[in-house]
Amino acid sequence: xxxxxxxxxxxxxxxxxxxxxxxxxxxxxxxxxxxxxxxxxxxxxxxxxxxxxxxxxxxxxxxxxxxxxxxxxxxxxxxxxxxxxxxxxxxxxxxxxxxxxxxxxxxxxxxxxxxxxxxxxxxxxxxxxxxxxxxxxxxxxxxxxxxxxxxxxxxxxxxxxxxxxxxxxxxxxxxxxxxxxxxxxxxxxxxxxxxxxxxxxxxxxxxxxxxxxxxxxxxxxxxxxxxxxxxxxxxxxxxxxxxxxxxxxxxxxxxxxxxxxx
Length: 262
Prior knowledge:
It is built from eleven helices and six strands. By secondary structure, the protein is mainly α. The strands form three sheets. Strands 1-2 form a two-stranded antiparallel sheet. It is flat, with a radius of gyration of 24 Å.
């Protein structure tokens, strides 16, 4: 009976995003983009950052398309003409954050949920997160705290991160790619194989073959590294995960931690 009640429960409390909340959201957006896109330009976003610099560093669309994206992201109904005025190149993020806040951009509020007469904050965090994900179009209706998070990140990585960030700006960690770890392992394997072969060749071959040894070890290293990389690419995908977070319940509890994400 308790789960049937919880299954259909949602977070109905909302509050307006403050300009500081909106800025924290942009900073999260940049952290996620920089982690996933190695070509993302380095920038420290602040209220003083110019719109032009923000668009350039995050590789964002021009004002017309960006305005449409912001409408969808914050559930706003601002015209293209108005967005063109707000997103002037020399304007600052402060003016943009104030504008988004003034337009009534909202987020779900994490509040205690009463279970069997007892208020439970972790349960409230879970329902707020699930509702925020549903708001973003992610199919989590009826999801339990034990629902695995990784499949959702695989199918809806950006949407999950941005929905959670809007709920708790600055608290969502940057996801880590399993492929990157395996790729690093492949590099180390190839390197140690190369070093081992080099030592063996020095012990067996005359010293005057040093140049040939150097060339041979370089070729060997590149071949082993390429083989390892290709094997990993064929047998593993580049799924992202959040370290230490396995389920939606874990993710919700993380948003209660209050510690800034790294």
